[in-house]
Amino acid sequence: MARQVCPICGGQGLPVEKTTVICHAKESAWPISDSRYYICESPDCTVVYYSPERCLTKADVKARVTFKERSPPRPLCYCKQVTEEDVIGAISKGAKTVDEVIEATGIGGGGLCKFTNPYGRCCSRYYLPFIERALRQSSLKT
Ligand SMILES: [Zn+2]
Predict the structure, then answer these.
(1) Which residues have a beta carbon within 5 Å of ligand 1, which is an ion?
(2) pTM of the predicted model, to two decimals?
(3) Tens digits of per-residue pLDDT, 15-39?
(4) Looking at the domain assignment, is residue 102 inside a domain?
């Protein structure tokens, strides 16, 4: 089955459940009809969710979708409400490993990603690479 592409940017989206779309859509974007929904992963595209029938843009969505934002706060873990800025702050205060960053920030393990994360997926696949990259960058500076 061919994946539906974003009608605005033409990028390949990732499928998301309707439940996830309902959790993030503003009331002004209701009703969220039964359909197949996707999340557009292009950082520069204003579309967040789309279905064969319609698009929901950033203006229709309550959460800040990290990869579509350039200014803080950029959420990494929606269950525990931890941002990229929190991770960088923990590292600057002395966290040296991924485990130490996790302990200092409380990131991860919320278990509600289907509802809280606009991706509808576990946020570890996004925050672990970010923490590793941030640790590497801080070790280069010292
Ligand atoms: Zn798009």
Answers:
(1) 6, 8-9, 11, 40, 42, 45, 47
(2) 0.89
(3) 999 999 999 999 999 999 999 999 9
(4) yes
